[in-house]
Amino acid sequence: MTINQQSPKDKRSTRERSERLNQRAKRETQPAKSEGQALNQRAQRTTQPTNEVSYLTIKVRMTSVSTRERSERLNQQQNQKKKVRKTMTSYLEKHRFTGPIFNLPDFTPAIIICLPALNEPRLLATIQSLAQAKRQYADNVLVMVLFNHSEDAREEIKGANQEAFSKFAEAVDKYQASGFRIMSSLMELPKKHAGVGLARKILMDEGVRIFALSGKEEGILAAMDGD
């Protein structure tokens, strides 16, 4: 009886072929899910640049829209200011009682306070209170004071008003400060319309004029008594 024996080399070759066959069989028998996952990964890698481009495109479009909206809002605000300024100018041309009274202040006022004055012994105390209140706020304040009397007033009234005006102009210098100005004037009013109502209107019309020239259409115009 003849016995065939394999050499070590032949045994190794047989074992290697067997291992390769086993590996091939494993690959062929892997679930289809693995193939699906591989396809999804390849698809994600393929579409990622497209998604990035789409995101950048959307971002550019949103930025463009935002810039255009800001520009439109700015134009609307400017047009509204022009319309208000035109209305203010038209009002002054039709209804103003006098011409300009004061020069423009050295700042753009946010608040203009109108104070008609005739026999006001506590007027300086009022100015002091306004100056103290101004220190608590950042807005620029202009105070306009109009000493007034009727053209047919008695001479002692006219003289007293003139004296009060002169003393006031000297006394308020110490209250003048950055962003806080006090302006005063003396005016004789026609007897038919003389009174606090006309004096107040003259001051408020002057406030409208200053706001219009200063480009402060949304400024605050206030009136109060001297005491």
Fold and architecture overview:
With 227 residues, the chain is α/β, with parallel strands linked by helices. Helix content is 59%, strand content 14%. The chain has 5 helices and 4 strands; from the N terminus they run ααβαβαβαβ. A 4-stranded parallel β-sheet has the order 3-2-1-4, sandwiched between helices. The chain is rod-shaped, with a radius of gyration of 44 Å. It starts with 7 loop residues before the first helix and ends with a strand. The model has no long low-confidence stretch (mean pLDDT 79).
Number of E strands: 4
Order of helices and strands: HHEHEHEHE
Principal-axis shape equals rod-shaped
- In terms of structural class, how would the helical and strand content be classed? alpha/beta
In order across it, which strands form the biggest sheet? Answer: 3-2-1-4
Question: Which runs of at least 5 residues are low in confidence (pLDDT < 50)?
Answer: none
Helix count from the secondary structure assignment:
5
User: Beta-sheet strand percentage?
Assistant: 5-15%
Rg, Cα atoms, Å: 44 Å
- Helical content band: 55-70%
- Mean pLDDT, to the nearest integer, reads 79
Distance between the termini: 143 Å
